[in-house]
Design a protein that fits this description.
This protein has about 450 residues and is an alpha+beta fold. It is built from 15 helices and 20 strands. The protein folds into three domains: about 100 residues, Rossmann fold; about 70 residues, 2-Layer Sandwich (Dna Ligase, domain 1), CATH 3.30.1490; about 240 residues, ATP-grasp fold, B domain (D-amino Acid Aminotransferase, Chain A, domain 1). Strand 2, helix 2 and strand 3 form a beta-alpha-beta unit. Helix 7 packs across helix 8 and helix 12 runs antiparallel to helix 13. Bound molecules: adenosine-5'-diphosphate (ADP). The site of adenosine-5'-diphosphate has 19 residues, from strand 12 and strand 13.
């Protein structure tokens, strides 16, 4: 079993990983930038190593420094969390070459899914339905126009190496397509160092529904139901729930089975999320994430399974002790991502938290690494806290969420708490009547 694990991340996910390790009797090593010396996971870890200055490129993305920290401390495993190096196949490979366990999938599967075109082609061949799209990267404008003519507008131009909602452009007609293809390619090159783009049909009213899977190294694969992550701004998730308000037991079973069979054929190991758009009763694959997701807690709340613990056990070569028939979805869970941003303009608002009072009580969980007196550095993403609420059914969950949000106080900085309070009161949200465009096109327009 793993004895000492290095956490190659920061913020709430670093703390989340530390907590799982503590409960499993695994020692932890926190690596941190100079800006994060006072961070909670650094304070709580058994050992800490400063790996560089504030800039992520010189610390959390610096593979050599992280590997050196692992060698110095004698860590026998590295957990990459999400973001930073979590989906960097070179990193995963280098970790394994140093005889350190990488808590994640095989590097080949990271590369396969890191390229959206190969990812899509791979799962399609394994029996998973995909969004209609171009057959590979678009070579020129002519090919793009031909796709649009055949499939109709609107279309979406996507970067094959894209992520984090970046590198996407919608086109509604030939003129826009000609214009935006160049923009998309330039953006893809600037953000991801690869200007390959492909085209998909742009769905007009889908929900974002993703399936959580768990696969060990002994050929066992389980699905843990879905998460509905349709509340998004600029293709970034803000609120997630499990189960989805619109998915039936049969649909969950059918899509879950397809995904499990595909992952078995692929020989995948570890945690994985297969993301779909869901429109008019049909699922369309968009991408697979080969890591723990920000929104994993909603699945944990409804299944009672500690995903990070399972992820570490799998990396250590253990057999999954659960079977598909043991997975039961109980009640309803909602997660609100609380960001250090203006709730109106969404401009980041880093700074000192003067007072931090978290809600509690039955069914309330707060995954956050901030505390009173903590200063949020301006160098990283703006997530300050995840409020997760669980109850017997969706109406009770929403009532509990409103109660928890009314208790939550974070002062000194602006946060998106007021936005979540309004969302939890909203009539469409109460009905579960929303899709990926609703927040921007309906809710925020009405503010
Ligand atoms: P990223 O890797 O940048 O997160 P994804 O492919 O996962 O990109 O897509 C992110 C979001 O973009 C989706 O949740 C959805 O809101 C939107 N999106 C992606 N593909 C389409 C599509 N074909 N039609 C409409 N919206 C889409």
């Amino acid at each position: 079993m793993i004895k000492k694990l290095l956490i190659a991340n920061r913020g709430e996910i670093a703390l989340r990983i530390h907590r799982a390790c503590r409960e499993m009797g695994i020692q932890t090593v926190a690596v941190h930038s100079k800006a994060d010396a006072e961070a909670m996971h650094v304070r709580l870890a058994d050992e800490r190593v400063c790996i560089g200055p504030a800039a992520a490129s010189k610390s959390y993305l610096d593979i050599k420094s992280i590997l050196a920290a692992a060698e110095i401390t004698g860590a026998d495993a590295i957990h990459p969390g999400y973001g930073f190096l979590a989906e960097n196949a070179t990193f995963a490979k280098m970790v394994e070459e140093h005889n350190i366990t990488f808590v994640g999938p095989h590097p080949d599967h990271i590369s396969l899914m890191g390229d959206k075109i190969t990812g899509k082609k791979t799962v399609q061949a394994l029996g998973i339905p995909v969004v209609p799209g171009s057959d590979g990267a678009i070579k020129d404008v002519k090919e793009a126009l031909a796709f649009a003519k055949k499939n109709g507008y609107p279309v979406l131009i996507k970067a094959t190496a894209g992520g984090g909602g970046k590198g996407m452009q919608v086109a509604n007609n030939d003129t826009e397509l000609k214009e935006r293809l160049g923009i998309a390619k330039a953006e893809a090159k600037a953000n991801f160092g690869n200007d390959d783009v492909f085209i998909e049909k742009y769905l007009t009213h889908p929900r974002h529904i993703e399936i959580q899977i768990l696969a060990d190294t002994h050929g066992n694969v389980l699905h843990l139901g879905e998460r509905d992550c349709s509340i998004q701004r600029r293709h970034q998730k803000l609120w997630e729930e499990a189960p989805s308000p619109v998915i039936t037991e049969k649909q969950r079973h059918d899509i879950g089975e397809k995904v499990v069979n595909a992952m078995k054929k692929l020989g995948y190991r570890g945690l994985g999320t297969i993301e779909f758009l869901y429109e008019d009763g049909q699922f369309y694959f968009i991408e697979m994430n080969t890591r723990v997701q920000v929104e994993h807690p909603v699945t944990e709340m409804v299944t009672g399974i500690d995903l990070v613990r399972e992820q570490i056990r799998i990396a250590a070569g253990k057999v999954l002790t659960l079977q598909q028939k043991d997975i039961k979805i109980r009640g309803h869970a909602i997660e609100c991502r609380i960001n250090a941003e203006s709730p109106e303009t969404f401009m980041p608002c880093p700074g000192r938290i003067d007072f931090n009072h978290v809600p509690g009580g039955l069914g309330v969980r707060v995954d956050s690494a901030v505390y009173t007196g903590y200063t949020i550095p301006p160098h990283y993403d703006s997530l300050v806290s995840k409020l997760i609420v669980h109850a017997d059914d969706r109406p009770k969950c929403l009532a509990r969420l409103r109660r928890a949000l009314s208790e939550y106080v974070i002062s000194g900085i602006e946060t998106t708490l007021p936005l979540h309070r309004k969302l939890a009161e909203n009539a469409d949200m109460q009905k579960g009547d929303y899709n990926i465009h609703w927040l921007e096109k309906v809710f925020l327009k009405g503010q």
